Automatic annotation (TrEMBL):
Name of the protein: Isoprenylcysteine carboxylmethyltransferase family protein
Record-linked Gene3D superfamilies: 1.20.120.1630
GO biological process: methylation
Keyword Iron belongs to the record: no
Species name: Demequina muriae
Enzyme class: transferase
Length: 156
């Protein structure tokens, strides 16, 4: 079945819509939560560094699709400490936007994005487990989004 037909790129489209929702909701009027332009900017910069570093570590294995592109399992750099550091960095960027704007809806959009990325990683990891022989062992010793948090339980 082609990637287009089985919905793999649909996940990428939803992810893009959620990024757009974060941007748009940052501009909406309405109730405000905690906000700080400087803290928001610091989070955006920190997340941007994480995205660039993750992309560098992935190299040719980088793809927006949850389906591996047959470039090999990456377990070096940031990926030595977390299985999905780029997703973590993207949420940090979006959280920075929410903190900078302070809008309630922007915080909600970031929470929806984080929940979606949790779902997307579950789909992605099914592909990674079937594609790369060493992924099961790697995932039992490596945190999901943060070092030491969310290792997969070894299957028997």
């Amino acid at each position: 079945m082609s990637a287009l037909k089985d919905g793999r790129w649909g996940l990428v489209a939803v992810q893009g819509l959620l990024f757009a929702a974060v941007a748009v909701t940052a501009l909406l009027p309405g109730p405000l939560l905690w906000r700080s332009l400087w803290t928001g900017l610091a989070l955006v910069i920190l997340g941007s560094v994480g995205v660039i570093w993750s992309a560098k570590d992935l190299g040719r294995a980088l793809t927006p699709s949850p389906v591996p592109n047959h470039q090999g399992l990456v377990a070096r750099g940031l990926y030595r400490h977390a299985r999905h550091p780029m997703y973590t960095a993207l949420v940090v960027i979006c959280l920075g936007v929410a903190v900078g704007s302070g809008t309630w809806w922007c915080y909600v959009s970031v929470a929806l994005l984080a929940a979606f990325l949790e779902y997307k990683t579950r789909v992605e990891e099914r592909y990674l487990l079937s594609e790369y022989e060493g992924y099961a062992e790697y995932s039992t010793r490596t945190g999901k989004f943060f070092p030491g948090v969310g290792q997969r339980v070894a299957s028997r």
